[in-house]
Design goal:
This protein is mainly α. It is built from 7 helices and no strands. The radius of gyration is 17 Å and the shape is globular. The termini are close together. The model has no long low-confidence stretch (mean pLDDT about 90).
Amino acid sequence: MFGADPIVFPAVFVALYAAHEVGDHWLQTHGQACGKGAAGWSGRILCARHVAVLTAVKAAAVTVVALVLALPVNPYAAAVALAVDAVSHYWADRRSTLLALADWLGRTLVAGKGEFARLGDGATAPTGTGAYALDQSWHVGWLLVAALLASLGVG
C-alpha cells in the first residue's frame, strides 16, 4: 500500500513553494507575463514556456532538497505531482479560465468573487489586483496537492 513519510510532505511543500516564488516572479519573462493570457497560439505558447521553466525549477528544488536531506521521495510520485501542478498552473495562467471560475463562484457560492478578480489598477498589475491574489492563492493551493502527491509511495 502507499505509505508516506511525515517529513517528506513539509520538505517538498517548502521546496515547491520557494521554487514557485522564484520561477513565477524572477524567471518569468516580461513577454510571458504580459502575453500568456492572450487568445490563440501565441498566448498558449508563452504560457507553456513559462510553465516549462517553472516546472523545471520546481523539479530541481525538490531533487536538491530530497538529496541534501536524504528524503525517501518516490521519483514517480514526484513526477506525477509536478505534472499535476504544471497543468493547474497553465490552466490558471491562461487567465480567462481563472476569471471564469471566479465569475461562476460569484454567481453560485461566494458572492462578489468575480468583482474581486477585477479589483485593482491593471497598469500596476500583477500585484495589487484581485486577479493576482486569486492567481497566487490558486497556485499555492495546488502546491499543497502536489506536495501530498509527492509524499505518496514512500516507505
